[in-house]
Amino acid sequence: MSSKSSRRSVVVLGASGLLGTAVTRELAGLPVDLRVVGRRLTSVPERPVADVEVRTADLTEPHELARAIAGADAIVHLVAHIAGPATWRVSAGDAVAERVNLGLVHDLISVLRAQRPATPPVVLFAGSMSQVGHPTGGRIDGTEPDNPLTTYDRQKQAAENALKAATADGVLRGATLRLATLFSQGTDSISLDRGVVSAMARRAWAGEPLTMWHDGTVKRDLLCVDDAAAAFASALDHADALAGRHWLVGTGLATSIADLFGSIAEAMSTATGKPAVPVISTEPAGQSMQTDQLDFVLDPGPFGRATGWQARIALAEALKRTAVAIADHAERTHAATTSA
Questions:
Q1: Is 3 within the bounds of a domain?
Q2: Domain containing 53 — which CATH number?
Q3: Beta strand segments in the chain, E
Q4: What are the distances in angstroms from CA 50 to CA 7, 45, 104, 278?
Q5: 3-state helix, strand, coil in the chain (%, to 5)
Q6: In a domain, 108, yes or no
């Protein structure tokens, strides 16, 4: 990435994860100078329009963050603590999670205060729709008072509030995109996807029943990770209109867990030619949380009106592609293991 370039300089932090890979793919198609930073190497599309620089770094190490964002006009902050099969089940005493989920945002603000760029850079932060806490009914529209119920959501909330304060101080121009439940469509490496859709699809391929921790009536707003990536690109183009606030990014469609799991079972049955696995209710597992029993469905209208963005990828078609990708990957892995 040339410092003499007149093109906008965009840095993606946490670029090697599922969302980061999708955001990298989206931004690589734009005429920008793009620096992507992750703990692992980030996949970059062939023949990108952007001038792309790929870095690996542990951003919790001193000075790595400052080097990563030097000269940036815009920063997309997607870094999240990943432990085990899910990123959001964080215990109150997990100092590493707090360091990553919250500490890095404070570090980012401190670095920008010290660097004092002539124009405050745009900072887009990936939040979660569950930060609201206990929805009061209907679709969440962003006007509700926030009362986060989990450690993860409290860390996200504190980070978001810090960015709002830094925006008010003129240090940066920050906005949080509170994302609906993400799912992929088999486009990227299967190992990147640790979400509920992918987890249940793996169980379905293995012939295991899909277990719900309730009666299946709990509803979720489900957003394809590629639509989420497009939302970040749209937000970059409307940063001044979005600055200082949080915005809800989802489809606005309510899908019950029972319908979702049933659709996953049917999609995998179609992909493999095997009978669909059953969907059953079980007692909540030890790692279950209060938010697992709550409905979270968003009203994305305000964000759409501010940016022109809307979700375009249908869940049903994405489930079919995900099932095919997971079945193909699992069968190739099994074949390689048995022939070794």
A1: no
A2: 3.40.50.720
A3: 9-13, 33-38, 51-56, 74-77, 122-128, 173-179, 181-183, 210-212, 219-220, 222-224, 246-249, 255-256, 279-281
A4: 9, 10, 26, 46
A5: 40, 20, 40
A6: yes
User: Domain check: are 40 and 155 in the same one?
Assistant: yes
Residue 273, judged by CB atoms within 10 A of its CB (0-12, 13-18, 19+), counts as: exposed
Residue 119 lies inside a defined structural domain of this protein? yes
**CA pair distance 162, 251, nearest whole angstrom:** 27
Distance CA 263, CA 320 (A): 9
Per residue in 90-102, pLDDT (tens digit) is 566 678 889 999 9
Question: Do residue 73 and residue 116 come from a single domain?
Answer: yes
Q: Residue 76: CB partners within 8 Å, gap ≥ 6?
A: 10, 11, 12, 13, 23, 27, 124, 126, 232, 236
For 102, which DSSP code? Answer: I
Q: Do the Cβ atoms of 78 and 100 come closer than 8 Å?
A: no
Whether residue 80 has pLDDT greater than 90: no
According to the model, what pLDDT value does residue 252 have?
97
Mean pLDDT for the chain? 91
Instruction: Write out the residue range of the structural domain in which residue 213 sits.
Output: 190-219+254-298+312-334
pLDDT in tens, 89-141: 556 667 888 999 999 999 999 999 998 888 999 999 999 999 999 987 789 99
Q: pLDDT, tens digit, for every residue of 178-200? A: 999 999 998 888 888 888 999 99
Rounded Cα gap, residues 325 and 291, in angstroms: 30
Same domain for 318 and 198?
yes
Whose CA is closest to 183, among 4, 74, 325, 76? 325
In a domain, 304, yes or no: no
* pLDDT of 334 higher than 90: no
In this prediction the pTM is 0.93
CATH number for position 269: 3.90.25.10
Indicate whether 214 and 265 sit together in one domain. Answer: yes
